[in-house]
Amino acid sequence: MIIQNTISKLVLLIKDFFGKGHKRSLNAKKNIVASFVIRFLSISISLLLVPLTINYVNPVQYGIWITLSSLIGWLGYFDIGFGNGLRNKLAESISLGDFIKAKVFVSTTYAVMGLIVTVLIILVVFINPFLNWSHILNAPENMSTELGHLALFVIVIFCFQLLLQLLGTVLTANQQPAKASVFNLISSTISLITIFILTKNTTGNLIYLGLALSIPPLVVLSVSSLWYYTHSYRMYAPSPFHVDLKYIRSLMGLGIKFFILQVATLVLYETSNIIIAQLFGSENVTLYNIGYKYFSVVPMLMLIIMMPLWSAFTDAWIRKEITWIKTTIKNLNYLWIAFTFMVMIMLLLSNFVYKLWVGSELKVPNAISIALAINITINIGAYIYSIFLNGTGIIKIQFLLAVFGIIVNIPLAVILGKLFGVPGVILASSFINLMNLVFFIIQYKKIINLKATGLWSK
After folding, report:
1. Mean pLDDT value across residues 338-362
2. Whole-model pTM?
């Protein structure tokens, strides 16, 4: 009887959780729960990929691949912010029920990105033969030819992904990020199976590894785009007849600001691998990335919760539903506190988990783990307020802080890296994030209390 009552109460709580509340909140809850399940599976696969990949190649080669991946990741910022510009403009159009305009925004963005991708591929094919990838990646000189071929294959594939991943932006703008996160899960699963097969049938080969990790996302996004744009998302499907160049300015005005924010993110995170490789060698890149992947579980969880809220904040801001925004931010701050405790527990267990995960041969220094824990805790808080600001499109302060971060972070990372080693490189980005957090909180309070003027309101 007691068990029956407990189960009944649990079922009632679940029904209330998904059935009561603001429509926007209910949609966010469903997407958050679905995203948690999907991301949990994705994280599990990602964690399995690390030791499998290291065993397939070796720690030095793995460090080279991570550094190359970071460099290629820079290409993701060549959308000049059009993706995020589309997210806001599309969310606004959907909120206002203007589906014709929504289709125009989608079509115009695909046209512009198609042109950008074409130019990028031509440039890469032309420039690549003149690049010494061994020198760029601080790798053995005898790997130069192999790395040149690997870079060309992976960059061209990534360029196509840059265009196709706009489908994820369209889904997220319509407050359905859980559907977008499925793409990564399927791609990672295929990569995991492929690399496992490679370990059984080939010796360690960076080109095989690169193709195994980069081709699956391309295939998954291609098939998914064809499916969605011919079925449930037909009303948003890109069409050459709906491309309207006059909307480029509207997309680009907001997009350029988002582009600078993306570049700042690149400088804060992606350059760490390159700086560490240059100062301390590829093996230290591997140690840093093991620690980073371990602690990044927490921001991944936070990202799952925040993804539906970007467009939800856009919708709430357009409708001037200030109470909903305040309540949501308050709940996110409670979550920030909970995640901070989670990071502390992870820090205490880190050495045990590293040994269990990648074996005893690769030992991540405690100082790296502590620096990563500090950085991620600060970053989670900053992310809460930046998502609200991004959703409203009031990002001038973020833009200026991003420019400052771009200028300061690399020299600061090099200086602190030389003084304190790898942890110093990590603490440089922590300093930038802490400054951002303070300004974001001040701006949020001014905006939400309708007291924002001048730069604070732009």
Report:
1. 88
2. 0.65
